[in-house]
Every structure is written in C-alpha cells, then in structure tokens.
Design brief:
globular, single chain, binds S-adenosylmethionine, 7-stranded mixed sheet, 13 helices, 7 strands, alpha/beta
C-alpha cells in the first residue's frame, strides 16, 4: 500500500513523470500567458490560437491571477482564514497562493490539488511553505472529490472541523458537464464547516465575444473547454452567501488593493470584455431563522 509520501512524491520515492509534452495542457498554456517558462511548443501553438481569438488574453490571465491573490489576502486578513484547499492550482507562479496567505498569517496551511503531472513536478520544488505554516501537494482530479477529501495528505495538513477556503481559480470551465461540476462543488462545500469560504473564477460566456468559439480549438486537442453563463456560475454558490462586490469580472473584485508584482496592473479601469471572467468569493453561513421580536411576543 503506497504511503502518503509515495503519493506526494516526497523525498523517499519519486516516480518518473510523463509530462505529455506533445499536447497542449491548460496549466502550461496559462503559464505562457503569465510569462512563465514552463511550457512546450504544443502549448505555445495553442496559446497563439487563443490569442488570435482573444487578443487580451494575457491581460485576462494577469487580472485573474491578481484577483486570486487579492481574494486570498482578503480571506487571511479580513476573514481570519488559516486553511486553504486550492483545486486546479496551476504551475507555481510567484507569488503563489501560500505566499499570499503566509504574508498575512505565516501559520497558514495550504493543500494544493491539480491533475496535471507537470504541476506535480514543479510543485515539489516551488510550493515550499514558510516554516510556521505548511503546504502539501496532492495529484488528484476535481471530478473525484472523495479522493481529495479522504487523502491522508489533506488531513495531515488541514483540519476539516475548522474553517477552510476552497479556492478554484479558472478551473470549472475545464470540467465536462457530464462530470456534474455543480454536484462536485456542493460535495466539497458540504465537507467544510460553517465559516468556510468558496472562491472561484471561470471563463465568462456573456463577456467572451469571439473567444467563446475557443471550445472548438480545445476539442480538437481532446480538452473540454467551455464558457459559463453568469447564472450557471452563480449556481456554484448555492448554500453560500457572496461577499461584496458579488460575482464580477476579476479586475472589479475589490480593485483598491491591486497586486502589481506579477505583471501588467489590471485595475478597475479595464474594459470587462478584456478579462472575460466571472470571479467571486462567498461565505458558508448558518441559515438563521429570525426569532420573534420581544414586542411581538407581548402582543400574543
Ligand atoms: C488556468 S490554470 C489556473 C491556475 C490558478 N488556479 C489560477 O487561477 O491562477 C487551471 C488549472 O486547472 C487544472 N485542471 C484542469 N482540470 C482539472 C481537473 N479535472 N482536476 C484538477 N485540476 C484540473 C489544470 O491542470 C490547470 O493547472
């Protein structure tokens, strides 16, 4: 039976990784747009095809990344969150999610999850925690939430009886509807205690314009990309309460604290179609039943 160390590819055992470099991968295409170097010819060719239909795609990628970092800082600072479960992590890009959280709370703990082996390869080297906190990487698929929730690595790192922020930046548009992404998100949120948060961003159908047809380019590569409508995106937040400003393009989510250390500033001044993404953060609260007012009971 493999140990947790085997599954995380820890120091004791490091199986060889097949990176599938002959085919474009979402994590590596995103890396091209963020100006990274962890990508291959097939990824760069697909990135060019995407840029042809969405000329602002680099701005959109940076705007999304900045949203993720602002939201994590908000969650650590204003909401007091110390545990993060990040699914669809992507190739490490500094600052990484744990760096943003640990800048506010050095003791913050992060479980990173992705299904792409190249993320595993780089995560080993780059998702290194501050000594006061902890990070773990789990290679698993969003569509198999029980494997994620039952993983020993997860339980070694975060405590599911305490609030957790479930973060899924630019993940859900890669999930085939037949894999029931809404049911999976419900399952994941149900496993978290009250006071937990859900943060997500997706490719926005209403803002996509000509780039909505990108699903054809990805289908040819065997990857199911689609854009998601606003209502379909809001449905992921069922049972939670969106915090201000609600579901908006990423550069409109609390833009006052724009992070500028990863590239082009993407403040509130951007045209929304330049960053066709729906982004939001919500809290899982107890359902409160209004109690009768004292003067109501006096009337009875
Ligand atoms: C565009 S990157 C997003 C990176 C980061 N979350 C962000 O918002 O900056 C999307 C990531 O989702 C991952 N992904 C796609 N489908 C997945 C699945 N079914 N399970 C887990 N990860 C998946 C890809 O491998 C990729 O690393």
């Amino acid at each position: 039976m493999p140990t947790a160390d085997d599954r995380t590819g820890g120091a004791a055992y490091r199986p060889p990784i097949d990176l599938g470099t002959d085919r474009a991968h979402p994590a590596r295409i995103y890396d091209v747009f963020l100006g990274g170097k962890t990508n291959y010819a097939a990824d760069r060719a697909m990135a060019d095809a995407v840029a042809e239909k969405m000329p602002t795609v680099k701005t959109a990628a940076v705007a999304n990344r900045q949203f993720v970092l602002r939201a994590v800082r908000h969650l650590a600072e204003e909401a007091g969150i110390r545990q993060f479960l990040d699914i669809g992590t992507g190739i490490p890009t500094s600052p990484n999610l744990h760096e943003a959280a640990q800048e506010i709370a050095p003791e913050a703990r992060v479980v990173y999850v992705d299904n792409d082996p190249i993320v595993l390869a780089h995560s080993r080297a780059l998702h290194v925690s501050n000594p006061a906190g902890r990070t773990t990487y789990l290679q698993a698929d969003f569509t198999d939430p029980d494997t994620i929730l039952d993983a020993p690595e997860l339980h070694d790192t975060i405590d599911l009886t305490q609030p957790v922020a479930l973060t899924m930046g630019l993940l859900l548009h890669w999930i085939d509807p037949k894999d029931e992404p809404h049911a999976v998100v419900r399952r994941l949120v149900a496993a978290l205690p009250l006071g937990s948060y859900l943060m997500l961003s997706v490719f926005a159908r209403e803002l996509a314009g000509r780039s909505a047809s990108l699903h054809d380019d990805f289908a040819a590569e065997g990857t199911a990309l689609r854009s998601l409508g606003r209502d379909e995106t809001l449905a992921f937040f069922d049972g939670t309460e969106l915090v201000e400003p609600g579901l908006v393009p990423p550069h409109r989510w609390r833009p006052d604290t724009v992070v500028t250390d990863i590239g082009t500033p993407a403040g509130g001044g951007l045209d929304d179609t330049a960053a066709p993404v729906w982004a939001g953060v919500a809290v899982k609260r107890a359902v409160t039943v209004p109690s009768p007012r004292a003067d109501d009971s006096r009337r009875d």
